[in-house]
Design goal:
Number of domains: 2
Strand content: 15-25%
Strand order of the largest sheet: 7-6-8-9-10-11
Number of helices: 16
Helix content: 40-55%
Shape: globular
Radius of gyration: 22 Å
Structural class: alpha/beta
Oligomer: single chain
């Protein structure tokens, strides 16, 4: 069963206005499936998961490019970045919208390469796992969650948001799915695309990070937990961010705020993978992670980079999320499931004391707990 994805309109808009659609996203988020649903007549597909084809392109990109005729879709473009100049030259000469669909994992060096070589010819969309609405077919007001919706959220937290885990007539075993997912991810995207050689140790690092989803990044703790150096921990966390496994919420800054702890907060982007790695059985422990990931998905589905920040100062005062839009600051407090609301907004007046204008605080929790 194909699930209608909310990012579809964003992808169609890019296809209608740019020569190149670059679709990134973590492994398993359904990029190829969606493009197959949207494909037009005559578009040919080439996948660089085929190592033989990949080697041909690496050694003779000019020969390969002469053999293809747009419109085409190229899967795994991160394996053959030497094709980018050829694609760019073709687009500059022909200027046809929708000629190239490029699918890749969410790699930072890929974005750097695209920015240098493609310029205004490319539109980029980032795809994540399923949202609550895509899974249930029902809209969800995060600021007005009821008990029925809480029960569904609990299920989604432990199962996760990967499309392969939903639908009728398929094997929905979460642990079996993530067993295979991790084997392929470590083999293809870590050992196959990076300098990491000890994938067993890297998996241990992922488990350590999963246990700390929602916390401030602490390279010393991650390094000690796994038995690696802090520079290696920093590099490995960057790999997980680049692969779309972890998202970082950067600290909010303002010239009037001088006691800020300038450290990002890390969240797993799929709570199913997070709970699988950390062996978390109680969904309430990952409610905040689920909320942050859900909100990030909603922005990316609209083609917008999430304008999210967090705040924590040296006095221990904190704000879970600050959304900065249209010159407005929206502070948000996320109350873990099963916990009573403590009106942090009344206790924290750091913005007001510094004459920093913010909107009224919003709280995300379950209504019955209020």
């Amino acid at each position: 069963m194909n699930i209608k994805r909310n990012i579809e309109s964003t992808i169609r808009n890019i296809n209608n206005n740019y020569s190149v659609l670059m679709l990134t996203g973590a492994k398993g988020t359904g990029r190829r499936t969606l493009l197959k649903m949207l494909e037009d007549d005559g578009r040919k597909y080439f996948s660089f998961d085929d190592k033989e084809l990949r080697n041909i392109v690496i050694e003779n990109p000019d020969v390969f490019f002469e053999c293809i005729k747009p419109p085409v879709a190229i899967i795994g473009i991160q394996y053959a970045l030497n094709l980018m100049p050829y694609i760019n030259q073709y687009c500059a000469k022909n200027n046809n919208n929708g000629d190239f669909w490029l699918v890749a994992t969410h790699m930072c060096d890929l974005f750097d390469n695209v920015g240098r070589t493609m310029g205004d010819n490319v539109g980029i969309a980032h795809m994540m796992g399923l949202t609550y609405e895509e899974i249930t077919g029902e809209t969800l007001d995060l600021f007005n969650i009821d008990i029925v919706e809480e029960n569904e959220i609990n299920v989604q937290i432990l199962r996760g948001s990967m499309p392969a885990l939903y639908g009728e007539g398929i094997d929905n075993s979460r642990d079996k799915y993530f067993d295979e997912y991790m084997q392929e991810f470590l083999r293809e995207e870590i050992r196959g695309m990076t300098t990491v050689t000890d994938i067993i140790l890297f998996r241990k690092f992922m488990i350590s990070a999963a246990k700390r989803s929602g916390e401030l990044v602490n390279y010393a703790v991650l390094a000690k937990d796994v038995g690696i150096s802090q520079p290696t921990a920093k590099k490995w966390l960057s790999l997980l961010v680049s692969a779309g496994i972890i998202g970082l919420i950067q600290p909010f800054s303002h010239p009037k705020l001088t006691r800020i702890i300038d450290v990002p907060r890390m969240y797993f982007m799929d709570t199913g993978l997070c709970s699988y790695l950390a062996e978390i059985k109680k969904p309430e422990k990952l409610f905040k992670t689920w909320v942050v990931a859900e909100m990030i998905k909603r922005y990316y589905n609209k083609g917008i980079k999430p304008p999210f920040y967090h705040y924590r100062d040296k006095d221990g005062k904190e704000v879970d999320l600050i959304i900065e839009e249209d010159s407005q600051l929206q502070p948000i407090e996320i109350i873990d499931l099963g916990k009573k609301v403590k009106d942090r907004a009344k206790k924290f007046n750091g913005f007001a004391r510094k004459n920093i204008a913010v909107n009224d605080w919003k709280i995300i929790t379950v209504n019955e707990i209020l």
